[in-house]
């Protein structure tokens, strides 16, 4: 695994968690909505007998477990990434990595925070990637 791939894992995991939360909110809306009864005669032998909201609640509980696991993984990964970044000697390089991979700031936001132009931020970032030493047992998500 390359350094940039390792550091970028937290961002991807955070986006997956956000997507799961949005899906869960949608399921909650479905579970609390009332559907109108159907007056048509239906003859199906394989129909699920559970109400629709029950299936939504089961899916919500599954998603909550998944989200909790993902959050635990994200916390552990970010802690490991912080330790790796703190080993970079140059302060500017360390701050670029921290803002980019821990706080998920854009290049423009990082430049604003460090009072540097985009080219300087890119230069610090590229130099920092060369100074990062991956842990012996990197967390892989």
UniProtKB/TrEMBL annotation:
InterPro entries: DUF1492 (IPR010861), RNA_pol_sigma_r3/r4-like (IPR013324). Residues 60-94 form a coiled coil. Keywords: Coiled coil. This is DUF1492 domain-containing protein. It comes from Alkalibacterium indicireducens. The lineage of its organism: Bacteria, Bacillati, Bacillota, Bacilli, Lactobacillales.
